C-alpha cells in the first residue's frame, strides 16, 4: 500500500492515477474535510495531526511500502517529517512539486521570504490588509501588525473550527470571508473591491492554488500584492509530473503493488 499525503487537489488526482495503475493507496490528511475529499478513491483515509508516532503505528498496521508527499507547497514541516521518517525506516519517498508562479514584472508586486517580512511590507503598503493565505500562521502574521491602526480581512475555508480560531484571535465576522477556492480573477476583483482592500497578501501556491488570478485581479485594481515565496526543501526525490511518480514507484516496488494486509 502507498501512503499519499494529501493537502491539495493534486494529491487526490495522484491517488486516482495510482489506483488506476494497480496500487492500493491510503490518504493522509490533517483535516476531516480533507479526508472526505480524498476518500473517493483511496482504500483508506487517516486524518489528524501527522507525527512520527502516528506514522509508525499506521505504517506498521498497513504495511506501507512507499510515501508520496503531495502535501501543500507550504507544508514544509510535514514534508520534513515524512522524509525523515522514510529515511529512518528505509522507505521510498517522493515529493510532488507544484509549479511556482511566474511573477510578472510590476512595481506593485513585492516578493518576500518570511511571514514577518510579509507583515512589515503589508503595513507600509496599506491600511486594509486582505489576507488570502488562510488560517495557517495567522497568529504569526497578526503578531507583527499594529491592529489598532490596520484592518485585517482574512479569507478562509468555511470550516467552523477555522472560523472559531480567527474569532479567538480577535477577528470579527465583518473581517472574515469564508469561501472555498481557488477563485477566478472576476471573483477576486469583486471581493477585493467589496472589502476596500488596499494591499493583498498571498502565498505562492502556484496556478493550482489560484495565485495567478489573485495577482491579476489586484493589478487590475491597482492594489499592491505581497507574495510569500514558498520554502525551499532540498531533500529526497521530487517530481513535477504525475508520470514521474508512477515511474518512481514502479522502479522501487516492481510487482509489489498490492497491500500486504
UniProtKB/TrEMBL annotation:
<keyword id="KW-0169">Cobalamin biosynthesis</keyword>
<comment type="pathway">
    <text>Cofactor biosynthesis; adenosylcobalamin biosynthesis.</text>
</comment>
<dbReference type="GO" id="GO:0009236">
    <property type="term" value="P:cobalamin biosynthetic process"/>
</dbReference>
<dbReference type="InterPro" id="IPR003723">
    <property type="entry name" value="Precorrin-6x_reduct"/>
</dbReference>
<dbReference type="GO" id="GO:0016994">
    <property type="term" value="F:precorrin-6A reductase activity"/>
</dbReference>
<protein>
    <submittedName>
        <fullName>Precorrin-6x reductase</fullName>
    </submittedName>
</protein>
<keyword id="KW-0560">Oxidoreductase</keyword>
<dbReference type="Pfam" id="PF02571">
    <property type="entry name" value="CbiJ"/>
</dbReference>
Amino acid at each position: 500500500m502507498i501512503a499519499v499525503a494529501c493537502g491539495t487537489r493534486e494529491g487526490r488526482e495522484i491517488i486516482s492515477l495510482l489506483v488506476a495503475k494497480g496500487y492500493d493507496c491510503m490518504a493522509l490528511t490533517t483535516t476531516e474535510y480533507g479526508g472526505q475529499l480524498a476518500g473517493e478513491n483511496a482504500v483508506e483515509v487517516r486524518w489528524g495531526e501527522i507525527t512520527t508516532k502516528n506514522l509508525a503505528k499506521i505504517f506498521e498496521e498497513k504495511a506501507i511500502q512507499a510515501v508520496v508527499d503531495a502535501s501543500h507547497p507550504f507544508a514544509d514541516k510535514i514534508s520534513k517529517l515524512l522524509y525523515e521518517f522514510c529515511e529512518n525506516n528505509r522507505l521510498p519517498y517522493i515529493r510532488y512539486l507544484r509549479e511556482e508562479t511566474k511573477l510578472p514584472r510590476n512595481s506593485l508586486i513585492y516578493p518576500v521570504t518570511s511571514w514577518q517580512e510579509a507583515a512589515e511590507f503589508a503595513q507600509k503598503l496599506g491600511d486594509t490588509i486582505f489576507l488570502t493565505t488562510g488560517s495557517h500562521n495567522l497568529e504569526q502574521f497578526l503578531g507583527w501588525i499594529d491592529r489598532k491602526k490596520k484592518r485585517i480581512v482574512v479569507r478562509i475555508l468555511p470550516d467552523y473550527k477555522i472560523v472559531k480560531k480567527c474569532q479567538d484571535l480577535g477577528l470579527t465576522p465583518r473581517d472574515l470571508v469564508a469561501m472555498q477556492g481557488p477563485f477566478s480573477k472576476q471573483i477576486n476583483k469583486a471581493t477585493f473591491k467589496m472589502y476596500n482592500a488596499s494591499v493583498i497578501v498571498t502565498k505562492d501556491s502556484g496556478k493550482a492554488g489560484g495565485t495567478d488570478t489573485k495577482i491579476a485581479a489586484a493589478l487590475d485594481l491597482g492594489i499592491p500584492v505581497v507574495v510569500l515565496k514558498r520554502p525551499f526543501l532540498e531533500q529526497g526525490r521530487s517530481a513535477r509530473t504525475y508520470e514521474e511518480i508512477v515511474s518512481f514507484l514502479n522502479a522501487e516496488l516492481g510487482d509489489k503493488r498490492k497491500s500486504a494486509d
